[in-house]
């Protein structure tokens, strides 16, 4: 079983609020990822990191930002939440070899009113 | 162009029967990996099976097998002896390159419903 955690699992918040979605993994993986997924749709990569102090934007443009100060921690922040940010956010991690799968956290379902 | 195409938005299968979920991919890189994930209604993504582009044999993991047809660029997932717990969304994904540095591209998914 993968040891990757996300909090909160569910979040309902008003427009304009600043929020941080937490993601932690205890597997020592160097690579971490954030995906955005609307209900019943495909996953879109919004951020990724190859290690400490490394962050890159993904394929889908996002107003969120990320940081990677510690190997195990990869939080995602929205400075001013909007209804268009309502979605599920999935965090994942992997080791550095091509054959290895990404391990996913349970996800955070965000609703912005 | 879409890198991963899943043409079946929804599939139904009788319990204990086998089912095939289709996946085609598009890449010019000779080195790539193909993955299948299961996503139950609870939302987490569960890794099922992996196939490398240079693997000679089709991958198998318990009741899951991957029907890899390289010339046709297809990587269909076969689930044998379906169980009610198999009802979920299933996503095919691809990583290009051999270094592991590249990211996964996901298809749009297939919703499988197992009928008792």
Total strands of chain A: 11
Percent strand of chain A: over 45%
Shape of chain A: globular
Low-confidence stretches of chain B: none
Tally the helices of chain B: what do you get? 0
Oligomerization status of the protein chains: heterodimer
Strand content range of chain B:
over 45%
CA-atom Rg of chain A in angstroms: 13 Å
Q: How would a crystallographer describe the biggest sheet of chain A?
A: 7 strands, mixed
Strand and helix order of chain A: EEEEEEEEEEE
Any overview of this molecule?
The complex is a heterodimer of chains A (113) and B (116). Chain A is mainly beta and 113 residues long. Chain A is 0% helix and 48% strand. In chain A, the strands form 2 sheets. In chain A, strands 2, 4, 5, 6, 9, 10 and 11 form a 7-stranded mixed sheet that branches. Chain A is globular and about 40 Å long. By secondary structure, chain B is mostly beta strands. Chain B is built from no helices and 12 strands. In chain B, the strands form 3 sheets. In chain B, strands 2, 5, 6, 10, 11 and 12 form a 6-stranded mixed sheet that branches. The model of chain B has no long low-confidence stretch (mean pLDDT 93). At the A-B interface, strand 5, strand 9 and strand 10 of A face strand 5, strand 6 and strand 10 of B.
């Amino acid at each position: 079983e993968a040891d990757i955690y996300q909090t909160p699992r569910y979040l309902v918040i008003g427009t304009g609020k600043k929020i941080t979605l937490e993601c932690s993994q205890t597997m020592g993986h160097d690579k971490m990822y954030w995906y955005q997924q609307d209900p019943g749709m495909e996953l879109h990569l919004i951020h990724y990191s190859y290690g400490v102090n490394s962050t890159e934007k993904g394929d889908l443009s996002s107003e969120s930002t990320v940081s990677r100060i510690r190997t195990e921690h990869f939080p995602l922040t929205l400075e001013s939440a909007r209804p268009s940010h309502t979605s599920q956010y999935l965090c994942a991690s992997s080791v550095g070899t091509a054959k290895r799968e990404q391990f996913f956290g349970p996800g955070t379902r965000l609703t912005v009113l | 162009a879409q890198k991963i195409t899943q043409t079946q938005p929804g599939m139904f299968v009788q319990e204990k029967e086998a089912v095939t979920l289709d996946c085609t991919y598009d890449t010019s890189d000779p080195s790539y990996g193909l993955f299948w994930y299961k996503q139950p209604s609870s939302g987490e993504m569960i890794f099922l099976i992996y196939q490398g582009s240079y693997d000679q044999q089709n991958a198998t993991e318990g009741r899951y097998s991957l029907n890899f047809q390289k010339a046709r660029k297809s990587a269909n997932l076969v689930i044998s002896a379906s169980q009610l717990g198999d009802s979920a969304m299933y996503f095919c994904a691809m990583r290009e390159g051999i270094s592991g540095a590249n990211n996964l591209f996901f298809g749009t998914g297939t919703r499988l419903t197992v009928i008792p």
